[in-house]
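Obj.: predict assembly geometry.
Materials: sequence records (below).
Method: joint structure prediction, all chains together.
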Amino acid sequence: MNCDFVLTTCPYCGCGCNFYLQVIDGKAVGVVPCKTHPVSKGTLCIKGWNAHQFVHDEKRLTKPLIKKSGRFEEVSWDEALDYTAKRMLEIKEKTGPDSFGFLSSAKCTNEENYLLMKLSRGVMGTNNVDHCARL
Amino acid sequence: MIDKVRQLVVDLLDSGRADAVLALANVHANVQPYLYKKGDSLDSLALWPKYSMGPILKSIQAAQPDMKLAVVARGCDDRALVELAKRGQIDLNNVQIIGLACTADEATECECANPYPANIDVGNKVDGVASTDLLAELKGKSYDDRLIFWKQAFDKCIKCYGCRNACPLCICEECILEDDSWVKAGEIPPPFPIFHLIRAYHLSDKCVECGECQNSCPMDIPLTSLYALIRNEFNELFDYIPGAEIDRKSPLVTSLEEDPIREETA
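Observations (raw structure tokens):
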């Protein structure tokens, strides 16, 4: 029997509270706030306290999906990325950069959000970039 | 002190008297609970800041009931383990407790009245903090003023349920604080004083003074002072200290075959 405590940053908002996911035999069973973390100091809000609950949810996507003939089908990452890049270039060519809006997520790191901003402004050429939980 | 704990842990694991020892570890400059097994390096062993061991031990036993466990337990952990065992939450027959007495500084930081376990293996017994400035201040207030004090304190509550989640003795399978007839979902602050008094009364015969509720409160509500006042009243009425005697059940869960408790009249 293995019981591990995995330090992680809360995936919900941008505060950066830290907690341990208590993992028993590979399954996240609970949250223990990290008392020594300088941001959260052993406290969490209701979202952080329940952050282990979605980890093993059956509804989580585990593979990329592409809608083909009206139905989502599981595809490889290569196929998904190639398809997305091709369509984005086509749309940019046809209707312009402001046809796009980029929505980033609090469930990403600061660096990942920065990269999406760079993709939006630097690659696609639009300022239509926002975030689900800017505080 | 820590070297002595290290030695006790190594002895338990190497001799096979324990399959695993629940303690704390310093990993990448953060302190966390850690389940040590035979062969693990004990360089990382840590003692402070304390984490509540009872609920973790309970989750380990739920996954593997026959595991021979040992746990490094401070006074509050020790009392929580006893109270959890009394209430059928854990089985102490398979658990060895390494009793760790808190230092005077630790006792002061926790404002702990009883900073030592029943059996001390490491450390020396120091006097607890008998009362706090806030407790004295509250006792000096009229009931109306106390109500104003708590109303103001609980107005800050963001209903994170951290006090309940962190509490080693909050063990109800269905929490009444999630029942919409008492506490409406999605509204803050929660109803005053029902939300906090339900918790306080539920804990009146369980609270082991670990302070985890207050430590986990993001709004710095002085919860331990409220529970101390209720616990003291309870103790005066029933002469019962949660976590003190393993063979004595709480007066709130004993049957009515015994004589009813009446207030003495002159």
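Conclusions so far: The mean pLDDT of chain A is 93.
To do: check interface contacts against the pulldown list.
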